[in-house]
Design brief:
- There is one protein chain.
- By secondary structure, this protein is of the alpha+beta class.
- The protein folds into 2 domains: 41 residues, Arc Repressor Mutant, subunit A (Orthogonal Bundle); 82 residues, 2-Layer Sandwich (Alpha-Beta Plaits), CATH 3.30.70.
- Helices cover 38% and strands 19% of the residues.
- It contains 5 helices and 4 strands; from the N terminus they run H-H-H-E-H-E-E-H-E.
- It has a 4-stranded antiparallel sheet.
- A hairpin with a 6-residue loop joins strand 2 and strand 3.
- Helix 2 packs across helix 3.
Length: 154
């Protein structure tokens, strides 16, 4: 793990809130020159501490009115079943995040769909017919009371 100091932590906090900050703006906030702030950002990128920059988009403005979490249990624990399932989720744009789990379910997925009919299609026409899938348990999000927050930085 790369070594970071308190200034790096402050820089990371700033970038998690607004990744579009310029080196000049970062430098002002950190009491550094723009070039020093830029070099710190570049080092954090090169060491893999910063993995990417992305825009947060309001799904509803895109017509994606239904968000759901799905727990998926595989029919088999064989490596080829997991690979087949991985190929399925990679090919499906509605599935935005996938985590492997301990416990009853093998995977937890976050999905966004236009409506309940589209969610139903995803479950009954894509997931359940797949030979690697034994069970799908879905939970529809009614409201997100806390948005995806920046990572805590000690």
């Amino acid at each position: 793990m790369p070594q970071i100091d308190q200034t790096d932590r402050r820089l990371l906090k700033l970038l998690q809130r607004n990744a579009q900050l310029t080196s000049q703006e970062l430098g002002e906030a950190l009491n550094l020159s723009a070039s020093q702030a830029g070099r710190r950002r570049q080092r954090l990128e090169e060491t893999g501490m910063i993995t990417r920059y992305a825009a947060q988009i309001d799904p509803r403005k895109l017509g994606l009115d239904v968000q759901a979490f799905m727990q998926v249990e595989l029919a088999s624990q064989a490596p080829q079943a997991a690979q087949a399932f991985q190929q399925l989720v990679e090919s499906c744009a509605d599935i935005t995040s996938v985590w492997t789990l301990t416990g009853e379910s093998d995977f937890l997925m976050r999905v966004y769909c236009a409506n309940l009919a589209a969610l139903n299609d995803l479950i009954h026409r894509v997931l359940l017919p797949h030979p690697a899938v034994a069970r799908v348990h879905s939970q529809i999000v009614l409201d997100q009371t806390k948005r995806d927050a920046p990572l805590p930085l000690p």
